[in-house]
Amino acid sequence: MALLITDECINCDVCEPECPNDAISMGEEIYEIDPHKCTECVGHFDEPQCQALCPVACIPFNPAWRETREELMAKYERLTAAKNTG
Q1: Nearest CA to 43 among 77, 19, 67?
Q2: Is residue 73 part of a domain?
Q3: CATH number of the domain enclosing 50
Q4: pTM, to two decimals
Q5: 4Fe-4S ferredoxin-type domain location, by residue (predicted)?
Q6: In principle, which of 32, 40, 67, 74 could form an S-S bond with 27, CB 3.0–4.6 Å?
Q7: CA 17 from chain center: how many Å?
């Protein structure tokens, strides 16, 4: 499951630089998470870094984007391979 930034986001800029997959970027009004890049930090850390650091706890799991740990690991491997060849 990818993560989702809700409209409680205060644009504090803490999450974006901590995302190891560059999945977080500024949207029209608040930060957004690209579910195609979000691995919930699987492959990098034991817990999602954006969730751990968010001061307002506005980054829940995205119920519309369900993935198993195995799927997240496969996505991590794809993203890592693409980053190393690109």
Answers
A1: 77
A2: yes
A3: 3.30.70.20
A4: 0.91
A5: 1-29
A6: 32
A7: 11
